[in-house]
Structures are given as C-alpha cells and as structure tokens.
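Late entry, written up from scratch paper. The run itself happened at the end of the previous shift, but nothing got recorded in the book at the time, so transcribing now.
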Amino acid sequence: MLSKFCGAAERMTLAVLTNEYHVDGVAADLDMALRMPLEERVARHAALRTTVWQDTASAWAKAFLDDLRS
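Output as recorded:
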C-alpha cells in the first residue's frame, strides 16, 4: 500500500493507493490488498520492483541533463 499523495504514486500506479486520512478507506484498501490473489500480487510486485530499479537518481539526473542539452 502506498499513499496516493506521495510523489512515488505517480510512477507506482500498480501499488494499492490509499488515502491515509480516510480510516474506512484505508481499511478497505488493506482488506483488498490482503485478499488479492497471489498471482496478481506477484505480478504487481515484479512491475513495481522494475520501476524502482529503473527510476534511480542517476536515471533522473541523466534525463534532466539530456533535456537541458536539447
């Protein structure tokens, strides 16, 4: 689960996004995450892990400098 208000939520769209200020919503999102089929959890985890490994500070800096050059 991930707060939908954090910056990472823009890139980690396969995470279970929740509004931590809405208690009933957090409970429902947690329930959904805990009941999620194993295959779906594994697929989401793999995709999210790929995003984490690709979106590094070095990758951001390279893209930023490339944009400045163009």
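The CA atoms of residues 6 and 22 lie 15 Å apart.
(Scratch paper discarded after transcription.)
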